[in-house]
Structure formats: C-alpha cells, structure tokens
Amino acid sequence: MENQGLPRVLVFGLLGIILLFIFGSSMFITINPGQKGVLFETLGDGLDKETIYGQGLHIVAPWNDMIVYDVKETETYEKMEVLSKNGLSIKIDLSLIHHPIADKIGYLHDNIGENYLEKIIKPAVRSVTREVIGNYLPEELYSTKRTEIETEIYNQTNEIVSTKNINLPAIYIRDVTLPQTLKTAIEQKLKQEQESLEYEFKIDKAEKEAKRKEIEANGIAKFQKIVNQTITPQLLKWKGVEATQEIARSENAKVIVIGNGDGDLPIILGGQ
Asked: Is the dihedral of CA 260, 264, 269, 272 positive or negative?
C-alpha cells in the first residue's frame, strides 16, 4: 500500500509542477506605481467592480483575469479643423489632461472598457469644440476671447466625461492656425488698436499733467495771497527786532548800532 501511495504523490507533484510551469506567469501579476487593478472571476460572479487592487505583487488563479488601468494623469493631443461663426475654416490644436477615477475603474471597465479615450473623451471634445467655436469669430479665438473659449470647451466637455468615471483636470488650446491672409489682417488690426490705445494713453497722461500743474499753480497763488495778507509792516518790524537781539547775543560778533534804519530798525555794522 505504501508503494502504491508513493507513485500517486509523485504524479500529483509532477502534475502540479507542470501546471505551475504552464500557468505560473499568468498567476503572478505585478501592479506598478500609478496603476490600479480590477479582477474578473471567470468561475465566479464575473467582474468585481468594488474591489480595487493597488500596486504590488498579486496571485491570481489562472482562470481569472486581472485588468490593470493606468490612473496617472495623461496628456493627449488632439488636432481638429472647425468652422468659425462666419464659416471660415480654422485648425486648432488641443491638449487634454485626463485619467480614470481610481476607485471607479471597475465601473469604467464594465460600462466602457479600457479604450475610454477613443470612445468617450475624444468624441466629446470634438463635438463640444465644434459647437463652441461655431459661436465665435476667428479674431476672437486668435486673440481677445481665447481664454474664454478654452474655459467654455473645458466646462462642457467635463460635464460629459465626469459622468463616465473619468477625471478631466484641464483642456488647453495649444495652437490656432488661421488662413494666412486672415491672420495678417487680424494682426494688422490688433497693431492699429494697440497704437490707438498708446495714443489715448499719451493724451490722457498729458491732460492729467496739465491738470496737475494747474492745481499746483492755483495752490501757489493761494499761498502767496495768504502770505501777502498776513505779512504786515508791524510783523516785519517785530521779526527785525528779534533778529537784532539774536545777533547782539552772539559771542562771535561785535555789534555797533548807529542810528535807525528803515522802519525804525537798528543798523548793524561790524562783526568777526
């Protein structure tokens, strides 16, 4: 009996080694930083949408499947040709920043799949961009309202993709290409507007400077009027007396008073 049991152990052991050799690579799944995994149980309830697997080594039964998603922010470039409000063709280059919502990748995989960029994000961006730019003139997109248009495209696109378990942090307008004749005309118009603003600024500055000088002159005139009204002969005489007293008390001066000056003030002579 012992001799019969031994071959069975060897057979099962050998079978286990063979199975491990065949399925070993698929049983050990490594999830790298910036990735999350969701498990599909073939012999169980199918896709487990609630359980999210983080980075590290995971052992998976060979009949199950671990689907790994990159949940880091990813930048995708999208080039389009759209029509403006007046029907002119405009080439626009967009930058899309996106990533799946990490704890919702089970639902994302169940409803959309791994190719969510092509199925959801790009179609939404294209549709919204055409609609938004169709409400603006080329010169507005090229210069004055570019930020406003960019924000409008982002807000409307984000409303769509946010319901699909996708995060869209930003959309940027990287470049706008207009027909050369139109681009030249717009740049010339902007140059003229800039020159006009500079001219208006210079006029405004000159007017303000003239106003300042007028106010300054009026202030000086008022001051002189007040001074003329307050400086009387009596005040001047009193100040002269005070000055004479100060000079007389000086140790470094020799003072000789002879007669009277104008206004009955002493005349001071001499000194060192």
From this structure: positive
User: pTM for the whole thing?
Assistant: 0.60
Q: Residue 156 domain-assigned?
A: yes
Same domain for 185 and 169: no
Instruction: Specify if 6 maps to a domain.
Output: no
Residues 6+ apart with CB under 8 A from 82: 89, 90, 92, 129, 130, 133, 134
The domain in which residue 256 lies consists of: 233-269
Residues 97, 171 contacting (CB under 8 angstroms): yes
pLDDT (tens digit, 9 = 90+) per residue, 143-177?
778 899 999 999 999 999 999 999 999 999 998 88
Residue 254 has pLDDT above 60, yes or no: no
Instruction: Measure the CA–CA gap between 127 and 102, rounded to whole angstroms.
Output: 26
Unique residue bearing structure tokens 């507005």? 140
φ, ψ (nearest 5 deg) of residue 78:
-135, 120
Tokens at residue 10, please?
């060897």
Beta bridge partners of 29: 58
Cα dihedral 223, 228, 229, 231 in deg (nearest 10): 110
Alpha helical stretches, state H, the chain: 2-27, 105-111, 116, 122-133, 138-139, 146-161, 180-230, 233-249
Separation CA 164–CA 153 (nearest Å)? 18
Q: Tell me the C-alpha distance between 265 and 236, whole Å.
A: 10
Question: Can you give the length of the chain in residues?
Answer: 272
Give, to the nearest 10 degrees, the angle between helix 122-133 and helix 146-161. Answer: 140
Cross-sheet strand order for the sheet of 35-41: 46-47, 35-41, 65-70
Q: Distance between CA atoms of 135 and 152, rounded to whole angstroms?
A: 11
Would residue 7 count as lying in a domain?
no
Summarised one tens digit per residue, pLDDT across range 48-67 is 999 999 998 888 888 889 99
Same domain for 193 and 238, yes or no, is no
- If asked whether residues 116 and 80 sit together in one domain, one would say yes
